[in-house]
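Prompt: May I have another protein with tokenized structure?
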Amino acid sequence: MKDPIYISGPMTGYDNQNFESFIRAAKALRGMGFTVLSPHEAKVEAPSHEEYMRADIAMLLQCNSVVTLPNWFCSKGARLEVEIAHMLGMTVLPVEKVLRGDNKWA
């Protein structure tokens, strides 16, 4: 298995929290052999934005790389995740680039 990667993208304000985009990306990445941690799979006791962000950041910290979904930059939470990833020296790539195999992980 390859090192775990985290999926970052917009959720708030999207139909069904944009889960379809997260589900498609997770399925495709897992099909390529990646271990994937995704916020759409977070288990949260008290489903507030703050609790989801705590769970998401905990998942992010288990990874060495991040893939971003389209329009991630429109999300305050995703921007925070990417900023944390950069501060910790993680690789951050758009999911399309990874799925094309145009990356250093493949």
